[in-house]
């Protein structure tokens, strides 16, 4: 059996690796050449999920940064800590960079004979009939646009801004979040010298980088910042796809389809 996966993002490659580990052939079709994943976005992952990833998908121990504490503050209370989560164990949860996980999965899959990656360059999609199972991990490709006749997009009128700060070396095992008047600002350590920043703003669009830079500097009380990377932004929204003509199983970012063309 060969499974077809549409898309070459992080979800698609993670699923592909899980399948080939179970001796299932996987063909990944993608429509975006030179796909580049953001180098400022990070993922928080629990100890249980790390164990699952290591056992069932790929070992990620070398690319995670373990955290022992989470602290919550409000700018209205002058740095007074509202909530504190901590553990006596090695980790409460961990942070890893999206691009490092992507590179790890891609390099491993390209070495596997059960995996093939192909570019969709034509409008004739009859090749889909060759597969018993098609899993769509890309809601914007030409196949999605052709076979899903209704899109329900939920917008939250909010944007998230991400970057990485480089700072003097410290024992960096505590994540903290500050609730500002404009939205939550999170500092998520990824090494003793670097910390990931995620800032969510309600009712905002295309904030100037200088304003975000200054806000990070103003609200930071832990790091001696040396530099701030380029700030990336993305709209917070969710997407539900529906079709009245094809058998579809939908869950989160993954869409399983059986086409009849």
Q: What is this structure, in a nutshell?
A:
With 261 residues, the protein is an alpha+beta fold. It is built from five helices and 17 strands.
What does this 3D model show about the protein?
By secondary structure, this protein is α+β, with helices and mostly antiparallel strands. The chain has two domains: 2-66 and 93-151 and 240-258, 3-Layer(bba) Sandwich (FAD/NAD(P)-binding domain), CATH 3.50.50.60; 154-236, D-Amino Acid Oxidase, subunit A, domain 2 (D-Amino Acid Oxidase, Chain A, domain 2). Helix content is 20%, strand content 41%. Strands 5, 6, 10, 11, 12, 13, 14 and 15 form an eight-stranded mixed sheet that branches. Strand 11 and strand 12 form a beta hairpin. Helix 1 (10-21) crosses helix 3. Residues 244-261 have low confidence and may be disordered.
């Amino acid at each position: 059996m060969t499974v077809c996966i549409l898309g070459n993002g992080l979800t698609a490659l993670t699923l592909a690796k899980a399948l080939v580990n179970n001796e299932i052939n996987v063909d990944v079709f993608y429509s975006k050449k030179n796909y580049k994943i953001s180098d400022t976005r990070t993922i928080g992952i629990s100890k249980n999920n790390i164990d699952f990833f290591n056992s069932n998908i790929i070992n990620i121990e070398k690319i995670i940064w373990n955290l022992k504490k989470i602290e919550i503050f409000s700018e209205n209370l002058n740095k007074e800590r509202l909530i504190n989560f901590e553990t006596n164990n090695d980790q409460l949860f961990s942070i890893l960079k999206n691009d490092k996980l992507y590179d790890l999965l891609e390099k491993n899959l390209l070495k596997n004979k059960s995996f093939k990656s192909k570019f969709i360059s034509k409008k004739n999609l009859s090749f889909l009939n060759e597969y018993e199972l098609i899993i769509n991990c890309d809601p914007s490709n030409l196949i999605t646009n052709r076979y899903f006749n209704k899109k329900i997009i939920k917008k939250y009128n909010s944007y998230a801004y991400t970057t990485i700060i480089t700072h003097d070396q410290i024992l960096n095992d505590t994540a903290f979040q500050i609730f500002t008047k404009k939205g939550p600002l999170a500092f998520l350590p990824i090494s003793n010298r670097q910390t990931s920043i995620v800032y969510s703003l309600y009712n905002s669009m295309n904030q100037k980088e200088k304003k975000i830079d200054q806000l990070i500097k103003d609200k930071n009380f832990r790091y001696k910042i040396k530099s701030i990377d380029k700030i990336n932004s993305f709209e917070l929204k969710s997407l539900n796809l529906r079709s009245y003509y094809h058998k579809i199983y939908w869950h989160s970012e993954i869409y399983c389809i059986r086409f009849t063309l």
